[in-house]
Specification:
With about 200 residues, the protein is of the alpha/beta class. It is built from three helices and 18 strands. It has two domains: about 40 residues; about 140 residues, UDP N-Acetylglucosamine Acyltransferase, domain 1, CATH 2.160.10.10. Helix 1 packs antiparallel against helix 2. It starts with a helix and ends in a 17-residue tail after the last strand.
Length: about 200
């Protein structure tokens, strides 16, 4: 609500001193939030990390796991479903929104971007759109997912892939850019997130 009012004021009065101050304060608050989120990733206790991530706006239930050293842009734009796992050293760019469904397994060092530069823009302007990862998808280690991608339910993205377009449900994709490899059988399972390693 406050952010909308500030944005409205800045839009109506772009050259006023107050608009400049408001924009600077907003950027400072974002920087502090991302810095705190980064430091939180090094805390070796799930309970503490969950508490801080929730205070920073990450929408995550208590039955999901974010392993250590996760990095965020705009943590309040990240929503994670039930019984989902985010591996260590992941990067989640919530600026335009990331929705992660239930029973999703995201391996280590995965990068998910929601904003990029328009290489055809005269000003190299930024552009973005949300990323959606549906229920029971598995994202292998060191995968990069670019803005506006939807990974369908039960889809598997092989390690090291770069996902530039939507992935159909219950398919396996891999490569750079990611392409269809094979179908995956439709399965109904719940990830066991009750056994958490203490120092990760």
């Amino acid at each position: 609500m406050i952010k909308r009012r500030i944005a409205g004021y800045v839009h109506r009065h772009p050259t006023s001193a107050w608009a400049g101050i408001m924009v600077s304060l907003d950027h400072l608050l974002q920087d502090i939030t991302e810095f705190v989120a980064t430091l939180t990733g090094y805390v070796p206790l799930h309970t503490v990390r969950f508490l801080v991530y929730r205070l920073l706006g990450v929408d995550i239930p208590g039955d999901s796991i974010i392993y250590w050293r996760c990095r965020f842009f705009a943590p309040s734009g990240v929503s994670i479903g039930h019984h989902s796992i985010i591996g260590n050293d992941a990067f989640l760019d919530g600026r335009f929104g990331i929705q992660i469904g239930d029973n999703v397994n995201i391996a280590a060092q995965v990068l998910i971007f929601t904003q990029e530069h328009d290489i055809n823009s005269a000003y190299f302007a930024g552009r973005g759109s949300p990323v959606i990862i549906e229920d029971r998808a598995f994202i292998g280690s060191r995968v990069t997912i670019l803005p506006s991608v939807r990974v369908g339910a039960g889809a598997v993205v092989a390690s090291g892939a770069v996902v530039t377009r939507d992935v159909e449900p219950w398919t396996v994709v891999g490569g750079v850019p990611a392409r269809f490899i094979k179908q995956r059988p439709v399965l109904d399972y719940e990830l066991d997130t009750s056994n958490r390693r203490l120092f990760q």
